[in-house]
Amino acid sequence: MSKAEAKEIYAVYKQNVDRYFEEAEKNVTQYIQAVSNLQQEFATAYKNAVETTLEYQQEMATKTGLNANLPPTYLKTINDATEEFLKTNSVQSKAVLAAMEVARQNVKTFNDNTKSFTEMNANILQSWFSTWTPTKN
């Protein structure tokens, strides 16, 4: 059915809803890619800023003759703290991904149940109508 042919309200509504979601589906991929690109660019910029700052500080320490060596206990403390941070970050990432998967499953369940719910409502209405509709003999 072409756009010009649709005159009945539900056909027009369905046609326009279909057009909306077709367009939305095209945009989703672009949005995801744009967000991913932005996150990557931010991570790269942040890493570059930290590395550049460290290089500058190291250069200044060397030029001024500052002893930048740390005692072994400090090194151990720093390395242990970094290890704990990485473990915490890993747990957090797993929790976020698990929550996103649960949310996806909930949306999928909703989607799967929508048709069944609509069919059940139609059957209830049909049952009510058949009760009050006189039968032809």
Radius of gyration, rounded? 31 Å
- What is the average of the pLDDT values? 91
Number of contiguous helices: 2
Q: Tell me the distance between the termini.
A: 38 Å
The major pleated sheet works out as: none
Which geometry do the CA atoms define?
Answer: elongated
The total of beta strands comes to: 0
What proportion of the residues is helical, as a percent range?
A: over 70%
- Number of discrete domains: 2
Order of helices and strands: HH
Percentage of residues in strands: under 5%
Q: What would you call the structural class?
A: mainly alpha
The low-confidence parts are none
Give structural attributes.
elongated, 137 residues, single chain, 2 helices, mainly alpha, 2 domains, 0% strand
